[in-house]
Amino acid sequence: MDRFAAFIRERKYLHNVSENTVRWYTHALKWLPSQEPTQSELKDTVLRMREAGLKETGCNAAIRAINAYLHWCSDSERKCGPGCTHPRIAALKEPQMVLPTLTDAQIKLLVGWRPKLNYADEHRFYQRRHHLLALILLDTGCRITEALTIHLGDVDMDNLLVILNGKGAKQRVVPFSFVLRKALCRFVTDFGLKSDARLFATKDGGPVGRLSALRSMKWLCKELGFPAPGRTLHAFRHTFAVNYLRRGGSVFHLQKVLGHSSLEMTRRYANLTTVDIQAVHERVSLLSR
């Protein structure tokens, strides 16, 4: 067995990584020219990534997987860190861009949207499903993959809690609102969902894919008369994060809700707008007293 296959086999069966993580490792390792690359070859690997059109974020995603493999090759029992002497790739500097968010007016339109009465029954099902997905993304801040894998049994209607299956096979429980509960109850009742059914499924009960969900959100935004924000699905998550802090939520609680392993990741997701900073400054300024 080659070293790439042995590394992925260990990650899968000993570290219990998800299938998505396995695919991430597999794709990233294809960039390496050999199973034991030199530091010079690693530098050339990054150059080839950039020449192929990968942005800094895409390169860094592959670099993290490659560095994990290189550390595994060193047979070190310690966590990879400054003391490691094996070849590794330094992460590229990423541009600090403010992620797009939905405006308050757009959120209001999304929450208040109702399908037209002249839709056919099957068409109404898909429109209702689109709308419910938008509400869950806005109300919980969950990742799209987490939303699409929710089963009805994961939803506690009495206590307003939902179990999400996050990255690295880590589950977490997050709260949701009474407004979302009403929408969930109507959807479940109107379409007769069983207790073990997927919340978001095709008419035949199959899973809904990420691309289908993206088309759904873009269609809904267009239906409401405004262009879908850039990085559409992630914009819903970022909108939740910004508004959570804007309305008094702590960054520590937000970290748990979003399912981040570090506080630094939460800070990056939750950039406040200039208007937010101005409002806070007016309250804390010594000259405004």
Give the structural class: mainly alpha
Gross morphology is globular
Radius of gyration: 22 Å
Output the helix-strand order.
HHHHHHHEEEHHHHHH
Helix content: 40-55%
Percentage of β-strand residues: under 5%
**Major sheet strand order:** 1-2-3
Report the strand count.
3
Poorly predicted sequence stretches spanning 5 or more consecutive residues: none
Q: The biggest beta sheet, please?
A: 3 strands, antiparallel
Mean pLDDT: 88
Distance between the termini: 71 Å
Number of helical elements: 13
Summarize the structure.
The chain is mainly α. Strands 1-2-3 form a three-stranded antiparallel beta sheet, with no helix packed on it. Helix 6 crosses helix 10 and helix 11 packs across helix 12.
What would you say this structure looks like, in words?
- It is a single chain.
- With 289 residues, the chain is mainly alpha-helical.
- It is 54% helix and 4% strand.
- The protein is built from 13 helices and three strands.
- It has a three-stranded antiparallel sheet, with no helix packed on it.
- A hairpin with a 5-residue loop joins strand 2 and strand 3 (171-175).
- Helix 6 (121-140) runs antiparallel to helix 8 (178-191).
- The mean pLDDT is 88.
